Amino acid sequence: MLDHSTDEQHRRESLFRLMDQVKSTGGSLFFVGDLFDFYFEYPDLIPKAFADFYTKVLELKKSGIAFHFILGNHDYWVQDYMMKDIMDEVYFGDMEFSINGRNFFITHGDGLLSWDHGYRILKKIIRSRFFIWMLRWIHPTITYRLARWISSKGRHSNHPQKIRHDVREEIKLVAEKHIDNGFDYMICGHYHLGEMIDLNNGKLVIMGDWFHNPTYAYFNGKELTMHPWEHNA
Ligand SMILES: [Mn+2]
């Protein structure tokens, strides 16, 4: 089922304008997960709801833009179409890379909080080969209906300050370890904070979301910065 709501259309157009900017400057784009509300690919089928996105990516790839996709908890279930035809590289776990002597650690970030025990177990189950194999035999309409229902329960949740504070402190502890181990930057998604934090000699970037707080991080070859994108909420 396609989401024809005006809000969704505006969000997509806003993302496509950001992609056009990357097209004009050149470079590589990294999606840090939960790019899609729900993405489950079958051996012979792809979700049609994102046809405009696929087209957009293919257009930019012709201009030499590279696409990297660190999978999130909403879009972990990719197969060859997303891995080979759409993205240049897809990461099922954390990814690390170095450029111009800067070391990046990029992760979606779900399951990092110390109190998230239940979630870490759930994460293992829904990412297991057996679960995915089983889900593949259920009719897509049922799977998608269920996923939309689950997703609608968690959406647009504006976390209270206390939770934001606790999450920030927890992720900072994780980032400090990575920075102590030689990374310059840790970038994660999932928590919607939209903040960049200086830590020791490095930086922690916690991306915003595309609903209330659209942000992007930009590495110009020397330093990493974070920017709001068309933010007028
Ligand atoms: Mn997430």
Sheet with the most strands, sense and barrel status: 5 strands, mixed
Q: Helicity, in percent?
A: 25-40%
- The Rg value, from CA coordinates, equals 18 Å
- Any idea of the CATH topology? Purple Acid Phosphatase, chain A, domain 2
What's the CATH class label?
Alpha Beta
Name the shape in a single word. Answer: globular
Number of strands: 10
Structural class: alpha/beta
- Quick check: average pLDDT? 93
Proportion of residues in β-strands: 15-25%
Second CATH tier, the architecture: 4-Layer Sandwich
The low-confidence runs, each spanning 5 or more residues with pLDDT under 50, are none
Element string (H = helix, E = strand):
HEHEHEEEHHHHEEEEE
How many helical stretches?
Answer: 7
Distance between the termini: 27 Å
The total tally of domains equals 1
Small molecules bound: manganese (II) ion
Widest sheet, order of strands: 4-5-6-8-7
